[in-house]
Specification:
The chain has one domain: 2-Layer Sandwich (Transcription Regulator spoIIAA), CATH 3.30.750. Strands 1-2-3-4-5 form a five-stranded mixed sheet. The protein is globular. Helix 2 runs parallel beside helix 3. The chain is of the alpha/beta class and 118 residues long. It starts with a helix and ends with a helix. The chain contains five helices and five strands; from the N terminus they run αββαβαβαβα.
Length: 118
């Protein structure tokens, strides 16, 4: 349990760049934070945001429930002909994305600028 309490709380910064909404995710998306992340992504998708860029460069942990939140946002985006793009996940997050084969579902970019331009 000590390891979990040392994780940074989840924070999300939302801004517009070009035609994309960029969400910079800071900290950890454990079970208690995943619902907040799901609600934020679904709200953005419901606003018919064509491209949601998730900057994961500052996210140090995500649990399976957090992955489910990203998938739920993806499904809502697709319903409105939108897309979620991921940017620079930290090694532990990237490994989980690869293990679950979500790298086949979500394009991963090195920078926010690349994700916005694509």
């Amino acid at each position: 349990m000590a390891e979990m309490s040392s994780r940074k709380p989840l924070a999300m910064d939302v801004r517009q760049i070009g035609g994309a909404t960029v969400v910079t995710v800071n900290g950890s998306a454990g079970m208690s934070e995943a619902e907040r992340m799901r609600a934020a992504l679904e709200r953005l998708a419901a606003d018919r945001t064509p491209v949601i860029v998730l900057d994961l460069s500052r996210m140090d942990f995500i649990c399976s429930t957090g992955l489910g939140a990203i998938i739920a946002g993806h499904l809502k985006c697709r319903h409105h002909a939108g897309q979620i793009r991921l940017v620079n996940p930290q090694p532990a997050v990237k490994q989980l994305l690869e293990t679950t084969r979500l790298t086949k579902l979500f394009p991963i970019y090195r920078t926010v600028e690349q994700a916005v331009r694509s």
